[in-house]
Design goal:
By secondary structure, the chain is mainly alpha-helical. It folds into three domains: about 90 residues, Fumarase/aspartase (N-terminal domain) (Fumarase C, Chain B, domain 1), CATH 1.10.275; about 200 residues, Fumarase/aspartase (Central domain) (Fumarase C, Chain A, domain 2), CATH 1.20.200.10; about 100 residues, Ribonucleotide Reductase Protein R1, domain 1 (Orthogonal Bundle), CATH 1.10.40. The strands form three sheets. A two-stranded antiparallel ribbon has the order 1-2. Helix 11 packs antiparallel against helix 12 and helix 12 packs antiparallel against helix 14. The protein is elongated and about 100 Å long. The structure holds arginine. Arginine binds next to helix 6.
Length: about 475
């Protein structure tokens, strides 16, 4: 058996000249993919167990390899493992260490596999548990939002379209809208499990292998549903990476939208939400300032999550099948997006726990901008047998009149209203009441207080 020259690259017999340390550094990924050590060791243990079951390696060798791998895992956990840039990536670092610990028999570990299937097996396992971590953070956020909603069922605010007062809504309804967004995010991450549950292990470099391996066994043991179906596609495919990055991008875009909203709501112009001192930052020159820096941080982070998605799309767009080094960058991108979203979710939850509505200001704002005009139009349709277009026109005349007189709709006298629409009676005045307006939106999914209470119950029952 050829001696393994342990301090040299695996391919040193073929490639005679050593790479410069600079080239090793740029080509290597160990400083990034060392994060996959647990998954890599788990994959290797299952792989050698399968090789033994299939009578490809002996019982003794299998045990020696597993012993060595477990020792390596402990060393890494205790920070006693020195990751070596000379060995390119986590797979090589572990294999090299295995030679050091158990000797030449380590050479059997790479039978019937390649780093090409190994790396995506590791990444898929990592991505499955990371997806669960993201979703549990989303659960926490949904819980926090639900608490805010419960406390604000009867808090009246202006619902906006184009950031202009549109129709009165309950603040709880607004926050329940955010819950819908974050629940969709959760589902979007869960949908990826279909592809994450296909095991790449055993497709080797690109063709599969002539060894009699059992890919169903390794798939099941590593928590996958089944082996992937085409060896070339398997080592070429990074769609699951794109899906993950897309899900993170959408989730961070949702966070950014809420952040932007809170920045606007807490601005001096609006002042309908108060940010506690815990979540604001001062200015180095203007002593009075309390800036919403953290919210701006959340909004800004979409720059890197979207950017990462586009980086990956660009890396893949011109790659013929199958494996290319270009794809090595996927891990740096994925880890960066993951860390960013976890960070954002933590910050976001903390922010939500530290905001409070300025209910008085919210009500005052809702009480401006002729916000109940649509209620008046609806009233005319229901009570004076008008088409909606006719009622819309009459209401516009009334709004024009109120604007000219510098009055709110609710400040108009019935006599004034009658001048524009003689059929109107005193009864119409109730439609200008903000809570009356909210209560009337009983259609499924609407803002009526009753609907909101039912929705809160529904979310609570679903336990996020
Ligand atoms: N570190 C490599 C990567 O992440 C592992 C696969 C290397 N395969 C190869 N044929 N060079 O892509």
């Amino acid at each position: 058996m050829a001696k393994n020259k342990n301090n040299q690259a695996i391919w040193s017999t073929r490639i005679k000249k050593k790479q410069s340390s600079f080239f090793q550094k740029v080509g290597g990924s160990i400083n990034i993919d060392k994060r996959l050590y647990k998954e890599d060791i788990a994959g290797s243990i299952v792989h050698v167990e399968m090789l033994f079951r299939q009578k490809i390696i002996s019982f003794k060798i299998k045990n020696k390899i597993i012993f060595g791998l477990k020792k390596i895992e402990k060393q890494i956990l205790k920070n006693k493992f020195i990751f070596n840039e000379e060995y390119e990536d986590i797979h090589m670092n572990i294999e090299k260490k295995l030679f050091e610990i158990i000797g030449e028999e380590a050479g059997y570990i790479h039978t019937a596999r390649s780093r090409n299937d190994q790396v995506i097996t590791d990444l898929k396992i990592w991505m499955k548990s990371s997806t669960k971590e993201i979703n549990s953070k989303l659960d926490q956020i949904i819980k926090t939002i639900l608490k805010i909603a419960e406390k604000n069922i009867e808090t009246v605010m202006p619902g906006f379209t184009h950031l202009k007062n549109a129709q009165p809504v309950s603040l709880a309804h607004y926050f329940l809208a955010h819950i819908e967004m974050f629940k969709r995010d959760k589902q979007r991450f869960i949908n990826n499990f279909n592809s994450l549950n296909e095991s790449p292990l055993g497709v080797a470099a690109l063709t599969g292998t002539s060894f009699n391996i059992d890919r169903n066994y390794t798939a099941k043991k590593l928590g996958f549903d089944h082996p992937s179906h085409n060896s070339i596609d398997t080592v070429s495919d990074r769609d699951f990476v794109l899906d993950f990055l897309f899900c993170i991008s959408v989730c961070s875009m949702h966070i950014s939208r809420v952040a932007e909203e809170l920045i606007i709501w807490s601005s001096d112009g609006f002042n309908i939400v108060h940010l506690s001192d815990k979540i604001v930052t001062g200015s180095s020159i203007m002593p009075q300032k309390k800036n919403p820096d953290l919210l701006e941080y959340l909004r800004g982070k979409t720059g890197s999550t979207f950017g990462n998605l586009f980086s990956m799309l660009t890396i893949l767009k011109s790659l013929p099948l199958s494996y290319f080094k270009d794809m090595q960058d996927d891990k740096e991108i994925v880890f960066q997006s993951f860390d960013t979203i976890i960070n954002c979710l933590k910050i976001f939850d903390e922010i939500l726990k530290n905001i409070s509505p300025n209910k008085k200001k919210m009500f005052e704002l809702a009480d401006s901008g002729f916000i109940t005009a649509t209620d008046l139009a609806d009233y005319l349709v229901k009570n004076h047998s008008m088409s909606f277009r006719k009622a819309y026109e009459k209401t516009s005349l009334i709004v024009n009149y109120a604007e000219k007189k510098k009055k709110k709709l609710r400040e108009l006298k019935i006599e004034e209203l009658k001048k524009i629409e003689p059929k109107l009676t005193e009864e119409v005045l109730k439609v200008f009441d903000l809570k009356y307006s909210i209560k009337s939106k009983k259609s499924y999914g609407g803002t009526s207080f009753e609907n909101i209470k039912r929705m809160i119950m529904k979310h609570k029952k679903e336990k996020c």
